[in-house]
Specification:
By secondary structure, the protein is an all-alpha fold. It has a domain of 60 residues. Helices cover 51% and strands 0% of the residues. The longest helix has 33 residues. Pfam families: LEA_5. InterPro entries: LEA_5, Sm_Hydphi_plant_seed_CS, Small_hydrophilic_seed_prot. Belongs to the small hydrophilic plant seed protein family.
């Protein structure tokens, strides 16, 4: 902060939080300064736990993939490819008369 400016008081921060403003980094969604601090701390702890479970390499890979478990990704993967019955027969060179 620039010199001459003072830190906002806790009551000022609480008022901003009640209005929906984030006053603590990572505290998005909290309606008081204390709630935002608890949210930020919990998110940090959750990330550390996940990193311990996956190991550093797995955690970094998950970050590269955006949290998806596979490249095709299901609902998180965007628009799913629509495949018709005709497309399958065409790709497999299946003779429909034998079906």
């Amino acid at each position: 902060m620039a010199s001459g400016q003072q830190q906002p008081s806790r009551s000022e921060l609480d008022e901003k939080a009640r209005q929906g403003e984030t006053v603590v980094p990572g505290g998005t969604g909290g309606k008081t300064v204390e709630a935002q601090q608890n949210l930020a701390q919990g998110r940090s702890r959750g990330g550390q736990t996940r990193k311990e479970q996956l190991g550093t390499e797995g955690y970094q890979e998950m970050g590269r993939k955006g949290g998806r478990s596979s490249q095709s990704g299901g609902a998180a993967g965007g628009a799913a490819a629509q495949v018709s019955k005709d497309d399958l027969h065409e790709d497999l060179d299946v003779d429909e008369s034998t079906m």
